[in-house]
Hints:
Blueprint: H1 2-25, E1 39-40, E2 56-61, E3 70-72, E4 75-82, E5 85-92, E6 98-105, E7 123-124, E8 128-132, E9 137-142, E10 148-153, H2 154-157, E11 172-174, E12 177-184, E13 188-194, E14 200-204, H3 207-210, H4 231-234, E15 243-247, E16 250-256, E17 260-264, E18 271-276, E19 291-293, E20 296-301, E21 307-313, E22 320-326, E23 337-339, E24 342-347, E25 355-360, E26 366-371, E27 396-400, E28 403-407, E29 412-417, E30 424-430, E31 443-445, E32 448-452, E33 456-461
Parallel strand pairs: 1-27
Antiparallel strand pairs: 2-33, 3-4, 4-5, 5-6, 7-8, 8-9, 9-10, 11-12, 12-13, 13-14, 15-16, 16-17, 17-18, 19-20, 20-21, 21-22, 23-24, 24-25, 25-26, 27-28, 28-29, 29-30, 31-32, 32-33
Amino acid sequence: MRHGARVRRFLFPLLFLSIAAIIHAADWPEFMGPTRDQVSAETGLIDTLPVQGPPLVFEKAVGKGYSAPSIRGDTMVIHHRVGQQEIVEACNASNGLTLWKYAYKSDYRDPFGYNNGPRCTPLLTADRCYTLGAEGVLVCLDLITGKEVWRRDTQADFAVPEAFFGVGSTPVLEDGLLFVQVGGQPNSCVVAFDANTGKTVWENVGEKSWNGQPMNGWRGDRTVTWSINDPAYAMMASYCSPVLATIHGRRHLLLCTRQGLVSLEPKTGKVNFSYWFRAEQDQSVNAMTPLVQDDLVFISSAYYRLGSVVLRVDPSGKSVTPLWKGLQLEIHWTRPVLLNGFLYAFSGRNEPDAFFRCVELSSGKVAWERKEGWPNASHSRIPEGERPPEVFGRGSAILADGKLIALGEAGLLGLFKPTPDKLEELARWQVPQMRYPCWTAPVLANKRLYLRDEDHLVCYDLGKKP
């Protein structure tokens, strides 16, 4: 009996941990999901969309912003702006009811007329919530209570020039270090903070790392001559989030800054290599988060025909060689979904330019494409709230249960079978609550799909019914 009791005492915590692992496997706790690649391991999802749409779980009015909700367990956190405050709000993920709120004053005004809310997505751990606001306020909160653990004002603590569209690079966390693309001059573009205390561990990237580097694709075979008075170097932070990857057995922290791709040693911040990648025109940004597969790194931009490049990392981890360059994909901000060596992506800088394409990663060959732009639109922005024809525009997509779940710029929801042989659309449905612009990618957690535009958050049940 005593032996049986010991076995039961031993098995119970293992059973609890197994259940917890299963629950967390279905979470979406940070930008681009549990594995930071827009892929969910969930199964048992519907294969089509009913005429009236999937069952609505809840809908909720939210403030301004492009931040996606993050879900861990039954807690959802949304970062948005109401009035003159940025609000971090924890809600019940099943019904949207508020659990706690944390707010601070924000005076951010987008100089190009886009909304003034936060752009970065909350990062959730078992007991912490990390957020980065449109003015660079970096906050660590207790996930259960919402109480502030620490806070850094990165624009005050580092010399950060004003960016085009505010702060929009979501941090990542590994081994107790929170990696943030701060954009501080002259050598603080990237900063590692102690995740427990908020103290600066290291800072790097800027004049020292870029000076003398070749400016790939720029006229005159130029090399970087750093000057903060030159628009090419004044701003350093981009809207691409950091990526952590193991390449040739070496751990890399990869960032596509405003100047281009940089690889750092995560623990020390030491530069492994850099590759200049930006449009010559001043008013341009990098916004697509790098994609890594084995020793290949894919980066893309939609500005001034910069296009895409695939870089192969040398076995030494200290240099890269372009594998191919081209305009097959000109990605504004959404990241492709990679499956079996093929990229599935929405391409185009402006609404009329949009295409949905499948491109082979290793060669750049276009497998198929479909025009998704507004047929008669000019290159100016579509008025807010206007519902264009039934196209996806520069949509965004995630992968789950063998299907691509895509959301168009005006709230068109689609299901696709990802295959390079042909474009196979399974279903489409216009989400009635969604209006242009819907620039936040879908989020999937525990068979529930979360979608937001600039005013609303809606949650639908995508689980198959018995």
